[in-house]
Amino acid sequence: MDNKKLAFFIDLKPAVEDFSTAVAHGLSQSPKELPCRFFYDEAGSALFEKICETEEYYVTRAEKALLTRIAPEIAAIAGPGCSVVELGTGSNAKIRILLNALAAPSAYIPIDISGVHLLAAATEIAVEFPDVAVGAICGDFVGMTALPEGVNTGSGPKLGFFPGSTIGNFEPDVAREFLSRTRGVLGPGDGFVIGVDLKKDVTRLTAAYNDAAGYTAAFNKNVLVRMRNELGVAIDLDQFEHMAFFNEAKSRVEMHLRSLRTQDIALGSQTFHLAKNEMIHTENSCKYTVEDFKVLSEQAGFDPIEVWTDERHDFSIHYLRTPG
């Protein structure tokens, strides 16, 4: 991928967890688990795009509509000449909305662990916004405590951007630690715009992760497809059922794969036994009230400045600021 259009490209050479090792570790746990990040190969990413288009999955539509409406207000709080630091890269749809609203943004710096996807996304924005200095950092933003040396973010303030309610994939304690570390990636007085999905009617929450077309089920099973195709695991996809439900006690939607019969999964020299109806936990999506997330962000050392919700109160976007 040509990165000549970028102001800089810094490759921190992040350690990429070995798929086989992660699967063996997860299936050794009790209860069994598989990391949700392994949903996302090319096929998984395409399935997720399909999920975002379903009637049941409100999250993406609600966030984009809300961001479009409030972007001028975000710009007014952020001020002119800011440098946007995005944690993770997606389809670029949301960063376009933000960059178009900001007053003379000086830079855009996405951080992502996938170098190929990062370069493609950053180059696309560099072409579309020639007056913005676009640089990219290939690294694990989850564990990052500061930007690498040599990153020129200009003279204006930094504005962190973390859309998509990705924060919900972290348990609250982990989310708090992540937010606390992110203060170092930003700086004193800098802003942080973050999308957070809200608690709502359980029926709607459950439906969002059990679409009638079956895209979420296929997305969940994609980790099994990858195990079969990439690790040579003899696995019958029809003997697993997609399960997604709201855990009220933990305020999260959980995704699992339920074994429909007693079966073994052989991986290398290891064999993992599954009982009939045993579940493999694949993903959490924590849901917050507006007040609960404000408290969490304060505990992480941020000052809540503003929060917006859509008309149905489905989704929230928070503007936080680092002290100083």
Describe what you observe in this structure.
- With 324 residues, this protein is α/β, with parallel strands linked by helices.
- It folds into two domains: 167 residues, Rossmann fold (3-Layer(aba) Sandwich), CATH 3.40.50; 71 residues, no CATH class.
- Strands 1-5-4-3-6-7-14-13 form an eight-stranded mixed β-sheet, with helices on both faces. The chain has a four-stranded mixed β-sheet with strand order 2-12-9-8.
- The longest helix is centred in the first third of the chain and has 20 residues.
Quick recap of the structure?
This protein is of the alpha/beta class. It has helices at 19-27, 42-53, 59-78, 93-101, 115-128, 172-185, 202-208, 215-231, 290-299, and strands spanning 8-11, 32-33, 83-87, 107-112, 133-138, 158-162, 191-197, 240-247, 252-259, 263-267, 270-274, 279-286, 303-309, 315-321.
